[in-house]
Amino acid sequence: MNPRGDSTSGSDGAAEPRRKSKKPRYSRFTQQELPACKPLLTPAIVVTTFAFIGIIFIPIGLLSLSASGQVVEIVYQYDTDCIPEQMQNDKVAFIQSSMTNKTCTRTLTVPKNMEGPVHIYYELDNFYQNHRRYVKSRSDKQLRSKASETETTNCAPEATTSDGSVIVPCGLIAWSLFNDTYSFAVNSKIIEVNKKNIAWQSDKEHKFGSDVYPKNFQMGGLIGGAKLNASIPLSEQEDLIVWMRTAALPRFRKLYGRIETDLATNEQITVTIQNNYNTYSFEGKKNLVLSTTSWIGGKNDFLGTAYLTVGSLCLFLSMGFIILYLLKPRTLGDPSYLSWNRNPDGHY
Amino acid sequence: MAGERRPRSAHLFFEMGPLSRSRSRPPPADQSPGVGRGDAGYSRMVHCNDPASPQASELNYSDNSISTTKYTVANFVPKSLFEQFRRVANFFFLIVAFISFSPLAPYRAVSILLPLVVVVGATMAKEAVEDWQRKKQDIEVNNRKVKVYDGSFSFYQTEWKKLRVGDIVRVEKDEFFPADLLLLSTNHDDGTCYVETMNLDGETNLKRKQSLEVTSTLHNEDSFQNFKALINCEDPNEKLYSFIGILDYEGVQFPLNPKQILLRDSKLRNTQHVYGAVIFTGHDTKVMQNAMDPPSKRSNIERRMDKIIYVLFASLVFISSIGSVCFGIKTKNETSVGNYRWYLRPDNSSIYFDPNRAGLAAFFHFLTVLMLYGCLIPISLYISIEIVKVLQSIFIDHDLEMYCEDSDKPARARTSNLNEELGQVDTILSDKTGTLTCNSMEFVKCSIAGIAYGSRSCEMEKAASGIIQYELCHDSPSAFERHRSEGTSKKSTKGFSFRDDRLTNGQWVGEPNSEVIHKFFHVLAICNTAIPVVSKSDEILYEAESPDEAAFVTVARELGFEFYRRTQTSVSLHEFDPKIGRKVDRTYELLDTLEFSSARKRMSVIVRTESNQLLLFCKVAYRILSAEEYIPWHDDFVKIKNSVNADHDTIVDEVADRIERDLILLGATAVEDRLQQGVPECINKLAEAGIKIWILTGDKLETAVNIGFACQLLRKGMEQLVITLDTPNINALKKDGDKNALEKSLHENVSKQICEALSHVSKMKGSNVPFALIIDGDSLAFALSTSLEHSFLDLAVACASVICCRTSPKQKALVTRLVKWRTRKTTLAIGDGANDVGMLQEADIGVGISGVEGMQAVMSSDFAIAQFRFLERLLLVHGHWCYRRISAMFPKLHQDGVQNIFFSWPRILGWMINGVCSALIIYYFTTHAIFHQAFRQDGHVAAYEILGVTMYTCVVWTVNCQLAIYLSYFTWIQHCVIWGSIIFWYMFLVVYGSFPSTISTTAYWVFREACASSPLYWLVILLVVVSALLPYFMYSNFQKTFFPKYHDLIQRLQVKKE
Fold this sequence. Notes:
The complex is a heterodimer. By secondary structure, chain A is α+β, with helices and mostly antiparallel strands. Chain A has two domains: 40-71 and 295-330; 73-292, no CATH class. In chain A, 28% of the residues lie in helices and 15% in strands. Chain A has ten helices and eight strands. In chain A, the strands form two sheets. Chain A has a four-stranded antiparallel β-sheet with strand order 1-8-3-6. Chain A has a four-stranded antiparallel β-sheet with strand order 2-7-4-5, with no helix packed on it. The two termini of chain A are 48 Å apart. In chain B, the strands form seven sheets. Chain B has a nine-stranded mixed β-sheet with strand order 14-34-33-32-15-28-31-30-29, with helices on both faces. Chain B has a seven-stranded antiparallel β-sheet with strand order 20-21-22-23-24-25-26. In chain B, strands 3-2-4-13-5-11 form a six-stranded antiparallel β-sheet, with no helix packed on it. The two termini of chain B are 62 Å apart. Chain B has 32 helices and 34 strands. Classes of the chains: A alpha+beta, B alpha+beta. The interface between A and B is large, with 102 and 93 residues.
């Protein structure tokens, strides 16, 4: 047998006859004698734990809140605003007509100094990019390499044109590409919008091929969203790449570009919006968002508030436990609390 | 190859058998008209010594190979697959796996197929390994060697499996019989041999077999050359103690009875060799006919687990229905104005999303969601529990504290699926003989000519003093040590513990009645059927039919009357002759043995001494016979004994009675069955743990009560409630005869006694006086009748200890069943003999004692231990751990969706609520903290893969931390598993995320590129995990501090001690 069995069998002492004995071999595992630590939640530990959580959480909460507070954000909802007075009753007709003027110019005021880069987002609401049909309606293989151009399995009904030639990029996601555009000017001076590096590095390098060019895109009877320049490879079509990272929730933002310069307090920004994208059929909202970031990202007070709440709850609980112990003390390990000791003659 | 279990041949060749066909057999498939029909149940024909003859081979009886395997190579895959998919959860996943190949699947088919294959594969592998072990055992048995007559003056060796019906075999001493044989002859002239049937019925004593006189002359190998005979006997059946058949030999028919039958798996003892003819082979043998699949027992937890699975199913269907109804409504509305989601192309949709056929789409969606939320049904739960149980069985098997050094037997968990039940045992039903006691009789006291001898105290007296001692040294080991040291000192002369200086060392000569004492010892030494065996150390040991007989001969040996040789006609002693003053060898001619029968309750022998005196010895009396008296009786006796008669036994008894008269009483003996080591302590501890103990025994009421006191089941201060029908007026009633009236009055009597006892108990309720109920078998029969069983069990449940005496094996099983049904709690039956089998199988848990008695009880048990005292560790240590661990399987596996553990419905519900809380916290906190704002400083937002990874990381952390909080015990294994799981998750994210994006798709670089460098990601995890654990942590601390459970308190006590 295993010679190590003997060396570990220190505790059973007696030199057992090895030959045919059915005596089980000693090991700490089989005898369930592994060294174990048995953490016991004594009142002191419990109080300390709660207090500790509180002490850690409250500063984190404060830091997060301040980081979120530093972020300056301009949100401008333009879906209704950019429709002329007379078309307000039939927004869908307005957006679908090719005859209407979709340009819409507005002025936004910078509430606080915004240090560059200022990120430009478009925000859609009530738009279900996470719908199962929508999410699946793409062909990753086709997007990545020219060789797989014909792989359009899940793309129907935007897989091929009516004459059967392949659409690149195929599928509903690409077809419904967002096509509103924004341009900005301060004091009639146009501000440059940097549209580079708005997509993730990994997407550009590995998921969208540099040899894949748009083909037969938006050529069918029904035009969805934006058209693509057929001479630029997909890996450089960053708007498409951003759009094709589908959002998890029906309200989402997507990066449109960046303004690299600072925007000073109370500066008036003139925004020219080409309001092309149809969210009116399903009563979706459209926002233009200009936002700076801090180390925590964009503006969201939830995290900080939650940290503060949980932290203070824990502090409160630790106090509560202390008070409870003082009011109703129990000695640790007092056997008199065992039920059979409470009922001395009890036989059951 | 031999693995096939062949259908028993039903092709019969039989001319004289009239009438109907056997009902117990399937109708013969190949029976052609004209071929004879068998007598009902008596159709077997054995052509002795002619197995190859055309008539014999036409019978087509099965060969002697056996197979106990569940599967064969051919049917393993389909059969075990079928077994697997009978489990609801597995079947569900099988269907899901099929659907997952359709476009309905929300994920790739492999993600459902892989776990299913692993789970089913692992279980099948386990089945295969188990079956392979059985197969190996079968092969070993089938290939054992036996000597078979070759038809031409000699015997050759062959394998067991090659034996055919009708073969003549020669079996040597200490060999097992390869099949059911007809005993033809032995090396003794009178055709007797001894067999040990331990493997069949668990009895260790030797049984005498006797061949027919006509065949007993077939002594040597040559004599079989012309031996031809035909046996017509009963069909294969499972009755071990009956056999009916006729031997047709040389034109004469001889009736056969069980005395001539040697059963497979019994062993030849004390006989050099025997010759036999094979009657039943392979699966036709009685032992194989007996080997029925034990009733499969399922533990409570397993049953409740099924229920939980159904509940989960219901909730799954419920959730899915809500989801698909909503989906249907939404889809239908997709084309309506103001809700037209053009980006989904509802105008040109596939069937799964078609607004015009929303109902159908909803149905398909239902299937999809069923798959999506399928993780609610824990697929790996069964297999994980299986693994845990196997480990627990290993722990039980390997526990050194349950290993018995004397018999070299460790504990065995034979049914792993009952492990956790051990922790929930409420009632123990125990056998007495061999379970609580050693079943080795000891001669303790005797009374000779009115003077009592023997100074050692019996168990009863020990117990009386022991109680005080036990209470004084409550937790010191001394009580146990005391027993242990006693045990070892006695080893030198096993079965002998008689102490009295007046009798030992030859001192008896000086006693006033030395003459009577001399006779007394003679009786002990001569009046028996024991066989002396010289052991290796030249000591003489005895093999006796009953343990008390062995005790008598042993005591006689120790006191100077050593019985050292038995021949067919004589008994030889080394005995002390007081006249000569030294030891001499004396031989007594054995004239007659009047065997023991339970009807006569005595045995006697008639011997002729060397001085030509005729003596009849009976325990413990004697009579001097005159020749005139003896000779005519002897002639009568021999004639009667050899007659063939239906009530042969009764007539023999009558004749024996005629001579066993006018005996002179010498004295009385007291033998005691010693309690096993540590039994009282064990019972005490179990009682302290709140477990009720019942003793079911065949003993008389007085004996049972004594044993009850000896093992501390009955204590001073306990009030005994005795229900018995053994009272004078009842006995008088019994003599009157009228059966119906008697039944009725007995029933009423028992009913009255029970009612009185019940009212007494309820009256005394407040006083804390423990009660003990003692009931005898006769009363029990009435108490268990439908009209009384309720009140009887109410009474029994109210008592701390219950002793049922004079119970039959069937009653034992019946009591067990009633207790199980009535209390609805876990019952454990413990026993060692064949008579306990029913009880063991009936109870929730059957524990067999694998000590001295045979294997019958062990074979039908779920756990086997060597001694009763190990029960304490089995129940209180292993049982508790098993229960907690199995219960704890649930949160570990299944925290994110629905947590359910600790198998009481409120607790399950509690865990479910906790799970829902955690899930809600994880979902809302994550989605709100990572909303639409930038996820990182570089302005990127989180798409669904980032949100998904964050959320799932939170789940992994929460599940494992929850487990860590729940555990009360950490070894390196726990640390490895818990923290390892978390580390594994991160490793998985990194490794899987680095696969080419074709494989990893949305997981590609998610952690590496987006999450790892985002402070928001880490902050969210810290927040969410702590918040998700907070409700449970708060609750458990509140509960532990202010409403602690037992195990919490014990743990604190331990910590305090340290």
